[in-house]
Specification:
- There is one protein chain.
- This protein has one domain.
- The chain contains 1 helix and 4 strands.
- The longest helix has 24 residues.
């Protein structure tokens, strides 16, 4: 995946366009959705999880999805920390 494929342009309710970068994504086949973990390069510590059924229209997560996304993000961060320790 090249850098352009990792960029998403989000239009806020106010009409403002924001470009976000994808940290990673995963597919939940049971729900038929792909979950994207995005961040603004000006605030890389603020990870924004969104979902999509078609890869084009992003949606906010419901409470159950947010719980799952938090667990997935924590596992991802743990894995990245272990990889950094191993370098």
């Amino acid at each position: 995946m090249d850098e352009e494929e990792k960029k998403f342009t989000i239009v806020k309710d106010s009409g403002e366009e924001v470009t976000l970068t994808m940290l990673f994504n995963f597919v939940n086949e049971q729900r038929g959705k792909t979950y994207y973990f995005l961040f603004d390069e000006e605030d890389p510590d603020n990870i924004i999880p969104l979902s999509s059924v078609d890869g084009e229209h992003l949606e906010y997560l419901d409470e159950e999805e947010m719980d799952e996304a938090s667990q997935v993000l924590e596992a991802y961060q743990d894995l990245m920390a272990k990889e950094e320790e191993g370098e």
